[in-house]
Amino acid sequence: MDAAARQSPDSTPAPPHRADFSLIYQRRGQLWTFAWPAGEERAMFEAVIALASAEHAAFDWFDAAAVSHGIAQAVLEAAQGPGPSTALAPAASAAFTQNPSPRTSV
User: Fold this and answer.
1) Contact criterion met (CB below 8 Å) for 39 and 46
2) pLDDT of res. 90
3) Burial of 27 (0-12, 13-18, 19+ CB in 10 A)
4) 60-78 residue pLDDT tens
5) Domain ranges, residue 32
6) How many domains does the chain have?
7) Mean pLDDT over the full length of the chain
8) Pair 23, 70: CB distance under 8 Å
9) Does residue 5 sit within a domain?
10) pTM here?
11) Is 11 left (phi over 0), alpha (psi -120 to 50) or beta?
């Protein structure tokens, strides 16, 4: 089960989980929020791939590449500890915000 869509076996939503990382991605008037606990990066990458693979999705492979880069960058910066950000400037047609501080996802 991926970190983006956790549900209990009886199809009721699982309780909110602690999100150590979050990333907000905006492009072409669409806004996506990704949140995941530390150690669940692989599940997030899989969820991003599934989202880009969905037929008729507004989220395409360019978006998947940008979000995947943001996920990797957030984890890398957290591992490096406090200091100046090494994040690359987003492309003119896309923007994302990283929030590596602990928070509860909704």
Assistant:
1) no
2) 43
3) buried
4) 999 999 999 999 999 999 8
5) 18-104
6) 1
7) 74
8) yes
9) no
10) 0.63
11) left
